[in-house]
Amino acid sequence: MRIILVMVQTVDGKTTFWHEPEIHGWSSPEDQVHFHSLIMNHTLLVMGRKTYEGVKDKIRLSSHIRRIVLTQRPEDFTHSEVKGQLEFSDELPVDLVRRMEAHGYTSMMLVGGSEVNEAFLSAKLITDCYITIEPKFFGNGKSIFASTNIDISLRLIDMKRLNDQGTVLLRYTIEYEH
Questions:
Q1: Considering only CA atoms, which of 16, 25, 13, 17 is closest in space to residue 58?
Q2: Could you give the strand order of the β-sheet that contains 66-70, starting from the edge strand earlier in sequence?
Q3: Could you report the per-residue pLDDT of 40-96, keeping only the tens digit for each?
Q4: CB-based burial label for 133 (10 Å; 0-12, 13-18, 19+)
Q5: Residues 154-166, buried b or exposed e (16+ Cβ, 10 A)?
Q6: How far, in whole angstroms, is CA 119 from its chain's centroid?
Q7: Interatomic CA distance for residues 124 and 93, integer angstroms
Q8: Are residues 142 and 5 in contact, defined by beta-carbon separation less than 8 angstroms?
Q9: d(Cα 9, Cα 30) in Å, to the nearest integer?
Q10: Between 20 and 30 A from 100 (CA), which of 23, 46, 67, 90?
């Protein structure tokens, strides 16, 4: 399965404005258009609980997009579940991928947060990355991955300037060391 990590970050590598989980207040309109076009071209999205809680009011459920939120306590969200559209799971990434492959999925969009991203990367499941760099410095905030001890090479596939301000979209494939 292709697992595509999609994230926006500042030049200094922050994916959140300090401790605010909401990205819509600081990411460019051009990145938001890019992100929503990716969503419309995917049928499977995975995110962590904190990311879900930061964006749940903006999610528009659709019968053609299955969203899975990884959480240690899925039972806390049974009231929010919509079968086939919004699910909550405590599966390990490799188990989730196997289950989704068994249901016929061939591609997954991974949209954060840092702990979920790291769990998929540590299991060597992420195959591609779309990283938008916004021309901002935040100093404090979260990073794409929770850990600081990562050493994985990427290969640049495409680079595109999104606006006059200098927002840049980078597309990579991941080259895990053997």
A1: 25
A2: 86-89, 66-70, 44-48, 107-110, 2-10, 128-134, 168-175, 153-161
A3: 999 999 999 999 998 898 899 999 999 999 999 999 999 999 999 999 999 999 999
A4: buried
A5: eeeeeeeebeeee
A6: 12
A7: 10
A8: no
A9: 14
A10: 23
| Distance separating alpha carbons of residues 178 and 170, to the nearest angstrom | 24
Q: Is the pTM of this model over 0.90?
A: yes
Whether the pLDDT of residue 22 is over 80: the answer is no
For residue 9, list its beta bridge partners: 133
Rounded CA-CA distance 127/72 in Å is 25
Both tokens of 72, joined, read: 């240690």
Q: Where are the domains of the chain?
A: 2-175
CA Rg value for the chain: 16
Q: Residue 40: CA atoms inside 13 Å, Cβ hemisphere, count?
A: 6
pLDDT of residue 76: 97
CATH superfamily of 2-175: Dihydrofolate Reductase, subunit A (3.40.430.10)
Cβ–Cβ under 8 Å, residues 112 and 126: no
